[in-house]
């Protein structure tokens, strides 16, 4: 079953990342790891398209030849620098896991757990022999539900294991960031987002719904339904009613609207018809007297659905949700059906990803820090962490200067912004304290059981901290994760070890390219503290308004321009970027690039950077920026991202930030007639 980790608006804000080199020779290589010539000063000039000028299209000037020559691998929905880096990181983890699995380990040790967990998932022959047997107890427990109270109790017991209509998590309280609190979140949909259900006149969404019905029919047949097609339609109808109550993706980005503290008595009063106390008690949270309800109207509507929709429909829905979640860990017919819907129909992939890579993903969810501890010992030298910390400090200094120079912000608000910046916590590479997995039982050969126990183990850890002081040392990502994030409630920026690789960061690379790569990433994460969401939290992580009304109005006037810029981009025919949904990431890209450039110029100390391959340091900076966004994606995946992803498509991230950058126009001497020319007075400048 899936291990759920709910990310709220107070949680990690993810950033796309890139390409890894220097995989150990002994480690298995990912099937799609293409060989690269040694980059010159950190730039892969062989990927440049000589016929495209940076003044017309920075993204294609740097990546055009690669785009022409590279096919998306059959098992991928997209391919590019980020995916290559992730594949290589996965290959390192694979090597760790397979080495441990081949060697006898002490029973109960972390090494035994990692090896046995991984091996149980890659052994598909054993899964085929077991058939549906591993899930029989779960299905029987659903069949035994005879009335509404038992339905609620079952849902409560599955908290943290299945994606059901009411998701619960325990996270940092945005109004009291020194303490953990219980939060609700909407969930329970088999399709990616509510638009897939509600936009009935859209041909692409209609095609996805048809594929979902086919998949649900396979699951219904497996669950013993005599009329699988009719069962699939019943579940789709119930999920459509759930989707109708869901908030849209833009509303979910509002940290004020999604913070609604209710007492448990208010929960019963405002969402009547459901024994919420029973559900919370079964989830291990019965002792709490209040919680944050993130989408109040949704919880009220869900209570009505739980009370009024036929019990048999809810039981059917639960059976198919359980089968869907467990399918990758069951026999081949269900694994194939799962791939046909989740990957082929929704992302366009034509082959399943390698089984070892699925196992690595599951291992990361279940025992991520155990693997991470080994990963950093082998692949993250101390000098990389020191160099990274130096870069972060330079970016923070540049940001401080930038705030001082803002013409649109009053001294009063500037003082608050500087206070917030001074309180940033920086985490690089890996946590100082590793998670204890001694209570987690891993049984050789029990793939589904291991995943279920890992999910319960994680939920028990999370639930136990409700109402307790926040552990500020905890990480939201494992060291082997190719990503980075900013957490507004903790006012922290976090950079796992695996992201600190080429083309983001290379110890041997030209400073200009490193600043355009990892420097802009650092700037991006710093900027999330000052985007449309993060700027609503103060330096202590408290969700409160620290702006003057005039300053907030001036800020929103500028961000409205950015919304309009990105809303004009059309990645698919008739499908535009949602400028409001992607606003936070676009602010972070724009501001991060601005700050990284200032930090790069500061690093030169007044000197002129050397010319390399005929390009100035300033030009190489922007090449480094564009290089990290190299990506191709299938239309199905593009549709899913345009519907629900707060990040803009890669080509618009590369060009959309650069077109507003004075340094870009100066470096390349843009002029009227160039496709990326933008008059100075029209350029959007925020931080």
UniProtKB/TrEMBL annotation:
Endpoints of the signal sequence: 1-25
Keyword Zinc: yes
Organism domain of life: Bacteria
Keyword Hydrolase appears in the UniProt entry: yes
Cofactor(s) the protein requires to work: Zn(2+)
InterPro entries: MetalloPept_cat_dom_sf, Peptidase_M13, Peptidase_M13_C, Peptidase_M13_dom_2, Peptidase_M13_N
Keywords: Hydrolase, Metal-binding, Metalloprotease, Protease, Signal, Zinc
Listed SUPFAM superfamilies: Metalloproteases ('zincins'), catalytic domain (SSF55486)
Peptidase M13 C-terminal domain location: 483-683
Occurrences of domain Peptidase M13 N-terminal (ranges): 55-431
Pfam family, one: Peptidase_M13_N
Family (UniProt): Belongs to the peptidase M13 family.
Protein name: M13 family metallopeptidase
